Each structure stands twice: as C-alpha cells, then as structure tokens.
C-alpha cells in the first residue's frame, strides 16, 4: 500500500492510495485478524455496507483500503475521545488506474489526523508482514494524545503531494511540536 497524496477539504482529509493486488482482505485473512488483535475496539465499529454486516464480519471480505479507513478513524477517535468521526472509501477504475482507492475521513485536529494516517499505514504494513510487535501501540497512542493537546492550528492544513518525502520529515516535525507542548503526564502534579 502506497499513499500517493493527502488533501485537506474543509473538515476532511482525503487520502489517495495505490494498492498492489490482492485488494481484498479475503485473500489476506491474517490482516483483519491481526488488526483486531492489536486494536480490539475496531470490532465494535459501525460500518454502513451493502450487506448491513457488522464491521467485524465485513472486515473478513472487504477492500484493504476500507480497513485503512477504519484504522484512521479508530486512531483519531481513541485520541480525541470519539467525536463521531466518520469516513468513506471509494474507487473508480474506469477513470483511474486499477488499484487506486480514495479514503476520506473527518479530521477535526490536523496533527492528530496526519499522525493517525502515518501510524495506520505502518500498522497495516507490520501486520501484513506478520510483525505486529514492530509497533508499540501504547507508545504511539501516547504521542497522538500529546499531539491532541496542541492547538489544531499548530500545523497548517496543507496537502501532501509527496508522501515519502513528507514521511521522512514527519518524525522530526512531531519532535519539534512536542518539545514546545506540555507533557500531559505532568498535568496536576502539585508544586
Ligand atoms: Zn466501513
């Protein structure tokens, strides 16, 4: 899975993905299973799909891009204490190359949304490669929660045209942002 670009549009983040085959979780049963193990709350997601299936059942045979959508929603929801964050996954291979997907998600907080996309694609890659232990979810969520303490305008809502280059810079950007932010674990300490 490769992220081609990210655009901001009003309250939304629009992600364009390029997937290699297989596109469906049916052909990668370890993927949804591994994600549910890492983030059990995902099973409880509401999902509006043709068969009216629970997300847990839907995830056994759906586009991997759709899993990515729910992962980005979950990482934002768990960080921002769930604020009814919604998303949608769609594609149009008559007009775009086969394997290109669009994932639109609500993005109430810029840094949290970008951090969630960055983490989601790393989680999917790690689970796909059967190395979920590569991701320390608790530590990653701590970073997202600290980003959530920043004002949303701490990062400009500027689209990303070259994700690989952006990704190289993201860790440094996060370190800089957090260097100026109070550590929430210290909040409430007397004196
Ligand atoms: Zn869904």
Molecular structure report:
The chain has 191 residues and is α+β, with helices and mostly antiparallel strands. The chain has one domain. 41% of the residues lie in helices and 14% in strands. It has 6 helices and 4 strands, in the order ββαααββααα. The protein has helices at 29-38, 55-58, 64-79, 110-128, 137-149, 163-179; strands spanning 2-9, 12-18, 87-90, 100-106. Strands 1-2-4-3 form a 4-stranded antiparallel sheet, with helices on one face. The protein is globular, with a radius of gyration of 17 Å. The model has no long low-confidence stretch (mean pLDDT 92). Bound molecules: zinc ion.
Beta percentage is: 5-15%
Number of strands: 4
* Sheet with the most strands: spatial strand order: 1-2-4-3
> Assembly type of the shown chains?
single chain
Q: Can you list the ligands bound to this structure?
A: zinc ion
SSE string: EEHHHEEHHH
Q: What count of structural domains? A: 1
Number of helices: 6
Q: End-to-end distance, in Å?
A: 49 Å
Outline the biggest β-sheet. Answer: 4 strands, antiparallel
Radius of gyration: 17 Å
The general outline is globular
Q: Helical percent range?
A: 40-55%
Q: What's the pLDDT, averaged over the residues?
A: 92
Q: Label the structural class.
A: alpha+beta
Query: Could you name the ranges where pLDDT drops below 50 across 5 or more consecutive residues?
Result: none
